């Protein structure tokens, strides 16, 4: 459904950003804004701001920015229409009416939802009744608590061909609706339609809104032809695009930034009972592209936890092929293999949550599983066989649509093939099986990056990437053990920029966007910059004394003191409090331009390195060398200035801006 701008504005007008955000973040008033700890990144000092007047939030720690719809989507994994529907209901804003055709379709879907809900209630009551005694013993044997059975709405389908259909008929539903919902098996070649689920413990499958859309049933009869049986495809249920327990797991997955994918319904139920509420499962099929994209809405790197048998390894290998084309920066999958012959349900019941945490703590990245699979696929002892291995691996890497990720996979494969061909440190590189055993005569990821084409790398390794002179923090700004341990080294220019802002905060009025976009090597100085911008945002007018007073109450007070003691050269006197506005403005623009040029060269260098490592063409090498020469000229000019310029006053602590 498309939503008009007027509708969205009406919802925004009725719900303030602080009201929506305040449900997940503890906010405190800070001037005209609210401040709190970031929900997107772990931090100790608040860097998350909400502005109700402007209608947005901004997180300086992670860069996240948006309105109430964006916040709900980011923190709860909702799609935009879902976020609009939820907030509209909260705000009391009616959504637009549908067309007559859509109303008819919606009426049919609504009846199917009611039919499936009635079926779930029937199965629940059957479990509690006398006919459900065997099913209750099954759940007791599996160690499930009564609360867990109620939470997942587990039930029992009686061993009858018509018990459910008779109940649904009494509720006013037709045989056609039962068949459409997947609860009745009917057809031209079937004289008497009959219930699909019989003598099975039942697992309701819910959509993201918590509505019953299908069922999974596990046979109680060990002689049954199908141990597990799922609902067929229906207007409400598309098993390739849904996950069992997705609705319940979504909130926990966002809180923990982790989602666990297991193979069976009972694995999900047992793990959730043991405290792993972020667990889901495919619906009786191998992982699909749509399910993978749904998982990425929950967490950037879902953990696929497969059984330790051959079927589990094959499922993992299939998942590799599904995921490869869709990988993107920051989004992948990881694998956690169970011991041989044990599934997650067995593990948590027999060995407890610590054993499961140990499995989840030993995950393997996708590239490792891909590498192991291809090594085991065919021999690679001869040059021709290794060439075939290389062709297979590069062919798989080329299926990755994202250019950046594809380039990194190409480099990784080239590095591993280099060591494989050299035959170095074979025992250390041998991949492990899911049970922890090493495969003979095979190799996993090298522990140290290889030095292939060493001559070219040596020639391209100088000068240093960071061309601004690095000075140990303890030498430049006086000892500060906490900051020194955190940063190690700090750019002199970065310290000068922050000193200028502390002494002349009026610069922020015209340069706030440029200041927010600056990249600092030092995390301490980055934190100070963010705090300065935050103080500025909450003040109508800001002078140096007020800024220092506000900063002294925050977690960056020590950094402010260190920056204030920075001694500048004669040409950098503009950073001192007594400098004239004209002098400050002119010099500030110069220093800002220098720093921005440095950032641009560094980004260009990174891109050129990636291009060269990806294809190693002469054109890429020429581009890389050209950028290296530009950086070398900057370094030489900077060193010359440092040698000829004299400090403004005698002190062993000096910085240089240009």
Backbone CA Rg: 31 Å
Number of strand segments: 18
- How widely separated are the two ends? 55 Å
- CATH topology (level 3) name of the largest domain: DNAb Helicase, Chain A
- Structural class, by secondary structure, is alpha+beta
Helix content: 40-55%
Walk me through this protein's architecture.
With 658 residues, the chain is α+β, with helices and mostly antiparallel strands. It has five domains: 5-91, Zinc finger, CHC2-typedomain (DNA Primase, Chain A), CATH 3.90.580; 100-236, Alpha-Beta Complex (DNA primase DNAg catalytic core, N-terminal domain), CATH 3.90.980.10; 241-362, Dna Topoisomerase Vi A Subunit, Chain: A, domain 2; 368-452, no CATH class; 470-644, DNAb Helicase, Chain A, CATH 1.10.860. The protein contains 29 helices and 18 strands. The strands form five sheets. The chain has a five-stranded antiparallel β-sheet with strand order 1-2-3-4-5. Strands 13-12-14-15-16 form a five-stranded mixed β-sheet, sandwiched between helices. Strands 6-9-10-11 form a four-stranded antiparallel β-sheet, with helices on one face. The longest helix has 35 residues, at 581-615. It is globular, with a radius of gyration of 31 Å.
Q: What is the strand and helix layout of this fold?
A:
Blueprint lengths: L4 H10 L2 H5 L6 E3 L2 E4 L11 E4 L4 E4 L5 E2 L1 H9 L3 H12 L8 H29 L4 H9 L4 H6 L3 E3 L5 H8 L4 H6 L3 E2 L8 E2 L4 E7 L5 E8 L8 E3 L15 H11 L3 E2 L3 H9 L5 E2 L8 H10 L4 E4 L3 H14 L10 E4 L6 H8 L1 H8 L3 E2 H12 L5 H15 L5 H20 L3 H4 L24 H7 L9 E3 H4 L4 H7 L1 E3 H12 L4 H10 L5 H15 L6 H9 L4 H8 L16 H35 L2 H27 L14
Parallel strand pairs: 12-13, 12-14, 14-15
Antiparallel strand pairs: 1-2, 2-3, 3-4, 4-5, 6-9, 7-8, 9-10, 10-11, 15-16, 17-18
Helix pairs in contact: 3-4, 11-14, 14-15, 17-18, 18-28, 23-25, 23-28, 24-25, 28-29
């Amino acid at each position: 459904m498309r939503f008009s701008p007027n509708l969205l504005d009406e919802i925004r007008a009725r719900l303030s950003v602080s009201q929506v955000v305040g449900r997940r973040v503890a906010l405190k008033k800070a001037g005209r804004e609210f401040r709190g700890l970031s929900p997107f990144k772990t931090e100790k000092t608040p860097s998350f701001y909400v502005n109700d007047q402007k209608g947005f939030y901004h997180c300086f720690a992670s860069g996240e920015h948006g309105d109430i719809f964006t916040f709900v989507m980011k923190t709860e994994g909702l799609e935009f229409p879902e976020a609009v529907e939820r907030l509209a209901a909260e705000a009391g804003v009616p959504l637009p009416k549908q067309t007559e055709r859509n109303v008819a379709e919606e009426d049919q879907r609504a009846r199917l939802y009611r039919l499936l809900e009635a079926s779930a209630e029937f199965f629940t009551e059957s479990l509690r009744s006398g006919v459900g005694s065997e099913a209750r013993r099954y759940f007791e044997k599996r160690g499930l608590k009564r609360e867990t059975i109620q939470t997942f709405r587990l039930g029992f389908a009686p061993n009858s061909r018509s018990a459910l259909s008779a109940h649904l008929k009494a509720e006013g539903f037709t045989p056609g609706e039962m068949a459409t919902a997947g609860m009745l098996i009917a057809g031209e070649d079937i004289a008497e339609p009959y219930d699909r689920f019989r003598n099975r413990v039942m697992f309701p499958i819910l959509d993201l809104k918590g509505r019953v859309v299908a069922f999974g049933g596990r046979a109680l009869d060990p002689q049954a032809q199908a141990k597990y049986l799922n609902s067929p495809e229906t207007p409400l249920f598309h098993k390739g695009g849904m996950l069992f327990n997705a609705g319940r797991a979504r909130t926990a997955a966002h809180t923990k930034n982790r989602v666990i994918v297991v193979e069976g319904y009972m694995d999900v139920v047992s793990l959730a009972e043991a405290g792993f509420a972020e667990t889901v499962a495919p619906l009786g099929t191998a992982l699909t592209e749509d399910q993978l994209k749904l998982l990425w809405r929950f967490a950037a790197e879902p953990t696929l936890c497969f059984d330790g048998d051959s079927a589990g390894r094959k499922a993992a290998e299939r998942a590799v092929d599904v995921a490869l084309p869709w990988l993107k920066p920051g989004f992948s999958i990881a694998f956690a293999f169970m011991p041989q012959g044990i599934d997650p349900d067995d593990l948590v019941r027999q060995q407890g949550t610590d054993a499961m945490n140990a499995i989840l703590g030993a995950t393997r990245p996708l590239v490792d599983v891909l590498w192991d699979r291809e090594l085991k696929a065919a021999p690679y002892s001869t040059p021709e066989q290794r060439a075939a291995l290389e062709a297979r691996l590069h062919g798989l890497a080329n299926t990755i649509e994202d250019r950046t990720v594809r380039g990194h996979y190409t480099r990784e494969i080239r590095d591993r093939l280099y060591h494989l061909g050299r035959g170095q440190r074979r025992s250390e590189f041998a991949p492990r099986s899911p049970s922890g055993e090493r495969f003979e005569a095979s190799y996993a990821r090298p522990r140290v990056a290889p030095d292939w084409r060493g001559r070219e790398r040596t020639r391209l390794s100088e000068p240093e990437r960071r061309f601004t002179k690095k000075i140990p923090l303890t030498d430049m700004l006086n000892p500060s053990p906490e900051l020194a341990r955190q940063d190690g080294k700090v750019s002199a220019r970065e310290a000068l920029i922050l000193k200028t802002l502390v002494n002349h905060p009026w610069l922020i009025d015209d340069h706030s966007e440029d200041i927010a976009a600056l990249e600092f090597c030092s995390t301490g100085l980055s934190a100070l910059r963010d705090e300065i911008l935050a103080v500025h945002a909450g003040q109508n007018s800001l002078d140096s004394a007020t800024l220092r007073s506000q900063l002294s109450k925050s977690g960056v007070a020590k950094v402010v003191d260190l920056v204030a003691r920075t001694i500048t050269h004669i040409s950098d006197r503009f950073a001192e409090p007594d400098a004239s506005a004209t002098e400050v403005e002119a010099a500030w623009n110069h220093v800002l331009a220098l720093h921005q040029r440095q950032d641009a060269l560094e980004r260009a260098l990174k891109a050129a390195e990636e291009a060269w490592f990806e294809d190693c063409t002469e054109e890429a090498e020429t581009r890389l060398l050209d950028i290296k020469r530009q950086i070398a000229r900057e370094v030489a000019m900077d060193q010359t200035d440092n040698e000829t310029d004299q400090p403004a006053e005698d002190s062993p602590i000096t910085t240089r801006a240009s």
